Amino acid sequence: MTVQAPHTSKQKRPFFLRRGPMENIATAIIGLGFLMLFQPFLLVLYTWSLVTLLTGTVLFIIVSKFPE
Fold first, then answer.
1. Predicted confidence band at 14 (pLDDT cuts at 50, 70, 90)?
2. Is residue 21 one of the residues assigned to a domain?
3. Residues in contact with 37: Cβ distance below 8 Å, sequence separation at least 6, in sequence order
4. pLDDT tens digits, one per residue of 47-59
């Protein structure tokens, strides 16, 4: 007769609390900020590019502290 340990299933974290997907989203926001910065057509995109870059950077710094 063998005794089996109870199976403890780890619950998955919600999508917005997982490190991998949120780092990808933050990187995409940073990339969008660069595209907005270097496009020559719309002044409103250029105006908001720095805010977008900073938002992505801050998000990446915060998300990089999440556990894997």
1. confident
2. yes
3. 46, 49, 50, 53
4. 999 999 999 999 9
Per-residue tokens: 14: 């919600």
Backbone angles phi, psi at 43, to 5 degrees: -65, -30
Please give the tally of structural domains in the chain. Answer: 1
Using CA atoms, how far residue 23 sits from 5, 26, 32, 35, 60, in Å, is 36, 5, 14, 18, 6
Which residues form the domain of 30?
A: 16-63
Alpha carbon of 68 to those of 18, 19, 61: distances in Å? 7, 6, 14
- Specify whether the CB–CB gap between 23 and 40 falls below 8 A: no
Angle between the N-to-C axes of helices 19-38 and 43-63, in degrees from 0 to 180, rounded to the nearest 10: 160
C-beta atoms surrounding 21 within 10 Å: 12
